[in-house]
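Two folds, back to back.
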Amino acid sequence: MLNLPRREGAAPRVFGPAPHGQGSQISPIMIQEELWERMRALPYVYMAPTLVSVPHSRALFLPEGIGTGPAAAFQRGREWGHIHPHHDGSLHVTLPPEAEAEVIAAGWGVHHPVQDVTLVYGPRNSEELETVWRIVQTSYRYATGAK
């Protein structure tokens, strides 16, 4: 489905379940911001305070009536993803089960221990940014109902 490359090195330290995030191998802030700019520029996406994550997480929503994604494509309300504050840099997105299985198998994230979302590790460099961006686009397509 995604044909992801294997993530290099050991997995970062993950904490949780509440809050659930990344505690090591933190993504450089400029790379986090590049990812955020891409995420918020997706068609019809709007930003609002997260309904499920820690304060200062930046969340992405789709308006009512946009897309035909299943209820499982949203974390709460119309929130389909969020990026954690700079000291963490990971993100939670919803993914179809087969896409999540590929993300986990390739070492790019883990399933949340309580919620039905995927923790995707923050990208450490520009090459990883491109892979994480592909994962985010898959989540967006899931929420909009696009193939």
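---
second:
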Amino acid sequence: MLRSILFTIELVACVACLASWSIETDRSTPEKHGLFEIREEARRFIAQENAKGQQQWDALDPNAKVVVPRCTVPLRAQWTPTSLGRSKPSVMVICPAAVPNLVMGKWNVDVAVKRKPDREDAGNRP
């Protein structure tokens, strides 16, 4: 009986923690790089690409399951190469040098993108 009560309390606490989590609050710490900063780098890259005046894109949120060590140098971004087998366009946010750790010395995170509606089409929508 006591175990089931403790389990219920732990479950409620866990749900409350997850409910308060978002990309907006997932910021970098000395040990890990936050998804917020990764998304912002993807958005900066997309803004530069959109300024070229060709296709217009929006960067979406990175996968919430991603956990990567803090990058020791500024992040870079580029289009994810099609040779990596992605079926849809995405932006690759790259860290060429992570803080020393046992798992990875560098990393990259793919951030999905979606095309903005054409300006001509947007006016014709109901």
